[in-house]
Amino acid sequence: MGIRRLIAITCLPELLSEMEKTHPNVRVELTITRSTKLAELLNAKMLDLAFMAEVPMDPHMFIYPLAYCHMAWCGRSDGRGRARPMTAADLEGERLMTLPANAPLHDFMRRWFELAGRTMPPVSICNSLAMILRLINAGHAWSILPECFALSDEIRIRPTLAMVVPELPMLKLRAARQSDNGSDALPPVVTSAKGMFM
User: Fold this and answer.
1) What single DSSP character describes residue 104?
2) Most buried pick, 23, 97, 116, 118, via CB within 10 A?
3) In this predicted model, what pLDDT tens digit does every residue of 105-141 receive, in sequence order?
4) How far apart are CA 158 and CA 156, in angstroms?
5) What 3-state class would DSSP assign to 22?
6) Whether 143 contacts 132, CB under 8 Å
7) Cβ neighbours of 83 (radius 10 Å)
8) Which residues lie across from 144 on neighbouring strands?
9) Peptide bond preceding 166: is omega within 30 degrees of 0, i.e. cis?
10) Residue 123 backbone dihedrals phi, psi, to 5 degrees
C-alpha cells in the first residue's frame, strides 16, 4: 500500500486501526512517498493501492475520490496580525519554499501567483514537507501547506495561517488502484479511509 507523506502524517495510525477491524490478519507493506512516485509505482504494478493527491495517472486506474484538503499560506507570525488579507505583493522579498517542481504543492504555488496576475518568483526547494514546516516555524520561509498538516496534533509548534487574496484552491485527495485488480479487500479499506476525511 502506498501513502502520500501528508496522509501518512495526519491519519496513518487511524487508517491501520480501521483496516485491522475488517481484516485482522492483513499484512501491510507501506511505501510512503510523494504522489507522483506513487502513481509511477501503481502504473508499474508495484502497488495494489495508493492514497495520494490528484496527479496525472494512466487511464487504466480505478480512482476513489476521498476528500478536499484546505490549503494555506504559512509563515511565522510577527505577533501583530493583519488588518487585510495577504497578497502576492506582500510576499516580495520573502523566502518562498516548496517541494520540487513535479509535486502538487509546487504547482499550487505557481497557480496561486498566476491567479494573482504575477509570475511565481524564484523559490527555494526542499523535498521534505516536515523540514519546510520547521523552517517556516524558525522564521526562514513562507510556503503553501495543507491545513491538516500544518495544524496536526503531531506538530509541536504551529505556524500562522495567513488569509490571502486570491483564495487558494483545495487539494484533491484520492485512492487509486489498478482497474484489473479485483481484490475484494480494497473497497472496504478505501471506504474506511474516506470516513476519516469527512
Assistant:
1) H
2) 97
3) 999 999 999 999 999 999 999 999 889 988 998 999 9
4) 6
5) helix
6) yes
7) 5
8) 73
9) yes
10) -125, 155
